């Protein structure tokens, strides 16, 4: 019997993502405090730019967590560390230089967490890689922020030790380093919005479903098949229900086949439930998965060819982003409800 259980490795990544989100909030809070405490206008502006990047990246992390589809809490040790850092940043025991030094270490921790998740995803499954793709933006921008913070530390440190200004040229070197990271990242760091459009989110879900189908049909290991189907089951159930709550009502007045798309979604849901009790090692299971893949792909094709153009032509960019926010919120709520029902 196929159960929708979270694999241990997937839970470990979910925990790390939760810790990244908690740390992201801490980084934002710290930089806001530094802006208040610092009197150097140029440093304040650079810190403000970082806050704006970090706030956008918090939205990206939210998207990654929802697209990933497995949720977990941050470790208690991480939560305690964050509480201790918050006290230090609000207190007077550390100088501004020492506080920014701690911030640079936190940025390094955040960067490494993102890179580790990326490398772990390569081992666990292609569907995980597909789900966390937006995390690449966060990783590259965090590396760039580290260079900015190093420049700030050089200025604050020299002032603290000597009372004098450091030699010029720090910011030019920092900008060269940031430009190098941007060059490596390419278009990844060109994002300027904290929210993707609804079409972007739907397309990510479609790609992840295609990947999971390929992993299921390409594996002969019943345990891996169970793991992949468990994720596919949850993803499609949540995706379909969220579409029925957010997307289809929005396009109903302009799309004459809305009732047909509702029916397709309901049929796919029924097929998922019919597959659940089957033995993943049986030929019957693989045959049922093939039928499900065909049904899902037909649904996706109609959605991408008929609904996507209507979303693009009939809704402004801001409306599409708002719909994406509502879709992501609905998915998150549904994921929580599904997790609560299985425990």
CATH architect. name of the largest domain: Up-down Bundle
* Total helical segments: 12
Oligomer: single chain
Q: What characterizes the major β-sheet?
A: none
Tell me the name of the CATH homologous superfamily of the largest domain: Ferritin, core subunit, four-helix bundle
Under CATH, the topology of the largest domain can be stated as Ferritin
Count of individual domains: 2
The CATH first-level class of the largest domain comes to Mainly Alpha
Taken as a percent bin, the fraction of beta residues is under 5%
pLDDT averaged residue by residue: 89
Q: How are helices and strands ordered from N to C?
A: HHHHHHHHHHHH
Based on secondary structure, the structural category is mainly alpha
3D shape: elongated
Low-pLDDT segments, ≥5 res: 1-5, 184-192
| Cα-atom radius of gyration | 23 Å
Number of strand elements = 0
Task: Estimate the helix proportion, in percent.
Answer: over 70%
Distance between the termini: 18 Å
